[in-house]
TrEMBL record, chain A:
This is ABC transporter permease. It is found in: Cell membrane. GO terms for molecular function: transmembrane transporter activity. It is a multi-pass membrane protein. The keyword Cell inner membrane applies. It comes from Goekera deserti.
From TrEMBL, chain B:
This is Sugar ABC transporter ATP-binding protein. The keyword Translocase applies. Keywords: ATP-binding, Cell membrane, Membrane, Nucleotide-binding, Repeat, Translocase, Transport. It holds the Pfam family ABC_tran. Transmembrane segments: none annotated. It comes from the Bacteria. Gene3D superfamilies: P-loop containing nucleotide triphosphate hydrolases. It is a peripheral membrane protein.
Amino acid sequence: MTSTLEQAPPTTPDRRTRVARFLADNGALVGLVVLCVALFIATPDFLTGRNLLNIGIQVSTVAVLAFGVTFVIVAGGIDLSVGSVAALSSMVSGWFFASAGLPGWLALLAGLLTGLLTGVVNGLASAYGRLPSFIATLAMLSVARGLTLVISDGRPIPTSPQVSFLGSDVGPVPVPVIVLVLAALVASFVLNRTVVGRSMYAVGGNPEAARLSGLPVQRILVTVFALSGLFAALAGLLLAGRLDSAQPQAAVGYELDAIAAVVIGGASLAGGVGRISGTVIGALVLVVIRNGLNLLNVTSFWQQVVIGLVIAIAVGFDVLRRRTRTG
Amino acid sequence: MTQQPLLTLERVSKSFGPVTVVSDVTVHVHAGAVQVLLGENGAGKSTLIKMMAGVHQPDGGRVLVDGRPVQLPNVHAAEQLGIATIHQELNLVGSLSVAENVMMGRIPTRFGLVDRRELRARARAALDLIGLDVDVDARVGDLGIARQQLVEIAKALSVDARILVLDEPTAALTRRETENLFRVVAQLRARGVGMVFISHHLDEIAEIGDTVLVLRDGHAVAEVPASTPEDELVRLMVGRSIDEQYPRGTGPVAEGTEVLAVDGLSSAGSFSDISFRVRQGEVLGIAGLVGAGRTELLRAIAGADRYDAGTVTVRGRRLRPGDVGAAVAAGVGHVPEDRKAQGLVLDASVNDNLGYATLASTARMGLVDFAGQRRRAEQVAGTLRIRMHDIDQPVRSLSGGNQQKAVFGRWVIAGSTVLLLDEPTRGVDVGAKVEIYELINAITAGGGAIVMVSSELPEVLGMSDRVLVMRDGRIAGELSAAEATQDAVMTLATRDVAPAQP
Ligand SMILES: Nc1ncnc2c1ncn2[C@@H]1O[C@H](COP(=O)(O)OP(=O)(O)OP(=O)(O)O)[C@@H](O)[C@H]1O
Ligand SMILES: [Mg+2]
């Protein structure tokens, strides 16, 4: 089995290709470090405690949202509804607390449950209804946002103390950052250790081979979207906690940030490839760029241009990485 | 030969990371000659021809065309020099038509628009050359592997190449299509085209080859004429001789209990009214021409496709149609005909691929049993001699024959007792084939049952206790091992043969 290995003469490692490969494999991480160093040099405001905490809080929403999307993308689908689902979940939670008078912690659970349910609907539509996930979740993007507006009548609703706690600090540490770390551990555990998680890679890599191996592909897809909805709800509650209220226009367009974070983190939109650690880095890249551009007084119009370019570069790295692998 | 070779790989080497796959090999391709490459799975044959095709660039050595050193940085550069390649793994676009695939990259246009008539006509001509009778407008994804292979061949033939490289083109073909292909090869040879040919069917070598370069572990170990006797070729290739190609004993105990029962199974357009039984310890071979419905039948039994009527029963338990999970739970394993499209998750590791069928059944509280999985995978990789440098390497980077063994290995790990094998040894070398046959014997000796479909008739005849012959979706007859001869099978398979369905 290893005869080729033993007979191989000690190859002189070609330093250039090794460096190229490391850069390609860890492009997002290298990019993040370069970015931070550049900002550190460019502005004294970057490396301050307050700014870093600020970054931490902002990353938490994007990253938690993106964890759910990571599951979906690894399984070969896409979820465009997470931003709307985040808003809907926090709104439902707020409504149960403020209008229905449910205890705060039950209201929080209701929010999470809302995300889970919308995810299940997405999953059923794409696994059993055979809708492409792009279409199913595009529809949900609109439906969930609409329901949010219906429930709130277009006005913010105050949140329960339990949800507000999600936006507070424990000592010097913002709760969202703690939630981020816990969510990352859970997501990574699900993806790497559980049967469902490992199956996601198979389903995304080659659905037909997965099916012919006896994996319950449809059930796995429903689980994947359900998880995505659940993480979206959590992100929505984090956001609401920070503002002490559920906003009808919360998280508009966040689905694109989430997808960008996942892709920058090295996942392939073709499915079968992706990691939670990559997604964390991807989310950091996005947030740090935005933060840096703010500190440098670049207008939000130009920020969009820059973010678009970063996504293009990240995907370019992905292509390069594939080439060094197979070539 | 003193004549200048069309193409030479001169002392080329190739490594992937720390692993040297081809080392210091020289190959010449002469005009009007067929250079055969021979070697075990993973010996480096495909890697070598990928250096001719511009897919890989050699780390050491040179590529010469007409005696002049050239660079082949990409596939296009090779094509420009008149090198056409049929790769071992098919490279077709399933959602496009046959015609579009055949003419890929050379779609004829008029006023900037696709000239459909010309497209169809040229594709038709290429297909006729190899005698493939399919609708040029059919979707390639709807064709079986054999026909896809023929489309791939037609595609390579339709470019006017000076050098044609064929990497295991006959692995999925039955004798009839192989003969068609060889007729074309003979014509090309007469026209002065230089060819490279790879096959694990040793009888084909003397038939169309001129010289044979034997590779072992990436080294060239011998260059011999193609007329060299087969057992000598085997000895050169594996370093030992193989006593018995088909080590099947005298068959099962006559009274073994019934394991698989198929009754009145029908599926419109594929097969109709199929009934048979398989007993414990038995190997049932299914023979027939390409398009006779053998693959569709196996898929239906395995739960991969639904069917219109009939039942499948395993050990008295009726299987739900179209439910692979239920079939797997009942002990059914299915090796599909196309390992790349249906068998493997190419970007996942060898370890993962070997474990998909047992992922859930070995888990504890929904958590994957990583240690156990690795142990089982390493063990079966050893039994099947899957050649790799690391069980965590992506299965994509294994050689074709070793990928095939990985699909088989999944069901060995699962301990499947009813194995449905569709081309189980496609692309597997002679030595490893015997190991797969031994495994088949071990499974049947342990009370398992096997249904085997193969385009290689000698394999079906050599390994089956009973042979069903299918024709146009129906059972044309059943032969006992004693009655089953090539002639008897072919007579049943072709009698009153209707024009082949597209
Ligand atoms: N991209 C790659 N990365 C790592 N190893 C590779 C890669 N491509 C090929 N190999 C290794 O190189 C060796 C030779 O592979 P190759 O495909 O040339 O074998 P082959 O002679 O064509 O075998 P087969 O008869 O099975 O087709 C194998 O051990 C394979 O695992
Ligand atoms: Mg090969």
